[in-house]
Design a protein that fits this description.
49% of the residues lie in helices and 4% in strands. With 282 residues, the protein is mostly helical. It has 2 domains: 167 residues; 74 residues, Orthogonal Bundle (Arc Repressor Mutant, subunit A). The longest helix is centred in the first third of the chain and has 18 residues. The N and C termini lie far apart (57 Å). About 7% of the residues have low confidence. InterPro entries: SKP1/BTB/POZ_sf.
Amino acid sequence: MALSEKDSEDKVDFPEDGEDAWKELIDWCHTGSIKPLEQSDRDAASDNSTSRRSCWIRLKLCCLADKYGITLLHNLAMDTIIDYFKGCGSSPFMDFDNFSVWSSYVYDNTPEQSGTRDFIAYYFYYELTYKVPFSFRGEGKRTPYAIDDLDELSHTIPDLQKRLFSLVRQAAIKHFWLLSPCTFHNHSTPGVMWPESLECPISLTDPVGKWPEECFRIQYYIQDRTLKGTELFDVRQVATELKYMNDGSFNSQLERLNRAKVITWVAPDTSFKLTPPSNEIG
């Protein structure tokens, strides 16, 4: 049926951001949570895996959230991408053709100040400085990107090239998954706490310590998972996910967070939850 002139005027045209990304955005609006990206060790060198495709959709979700100013969603989605690469082992990898597609898409669909652009720049820097471990030589499992390919891509996207020069000058840490998560976040109101502005997990409460201190890392993990839908935390499970080998050290950090009223014990030394944030700013 043809649209009338009035119907055409009332019609809303959404940009082509990808049906899957829109689906994730709508799901987040309904549930208030976002699922982590899962991967196995073999995904570190696979660009055809289901989990790598999920990561690509999540990157498009970041761009979509960026476009419509949904800062919290952007930052939570970006955290899942960083966690994905962190879980790929010591040498996360995607082939150059896919990286080129990711780069072009991000820089075509985000504003200049976007943390998503920083993620692409850091991955570029990581590949530029990547050195093949001895055990990989001759095995065909992992080779660096060709310099000619990197040069052509950087010239195609001037802002990417500018960010890359900045990272080189800083002699930045190449293992981007070890950086503070806020490196790749969007923050329109730095230093403003919830409920006036909830833009990333750490803005829920005043941070106890600074990155990369253990207490800060644990606090960030707890607040991040809370915003993604977790209500009750099992001590052993959290320690395992954060790769703590020493229970005493981990428990002492939890006690520090408990004293700071960041967490509340449900069953001492067994389970806890995030203490509801105060409504007072600062």
